[in-house]
Amino acid sequence: xxxxxxxxxxxxxxxVPGSVDIFDKHxxxxxxxxxxxxxxxxxxxxxHGIDVNELIKELxxxxx
Length: 64
What we know:
Elements: H1 9-15, H2 19-25, H3 41-48, H4 52-63
């Protein structure tokens, strides 16, 4: 999976094993939020004050 700032959080959670741990590490409770079905990584990071590029790097690392 190619992960970009426009990737939908739910898609990342479904496609990238271990991504829940990355979101949890950044205090993003995305796995329990209904908005993740339509929310992009960029929007989620903005709402939580997280650098989207850093999150993407971490997710790409575990996605392989």
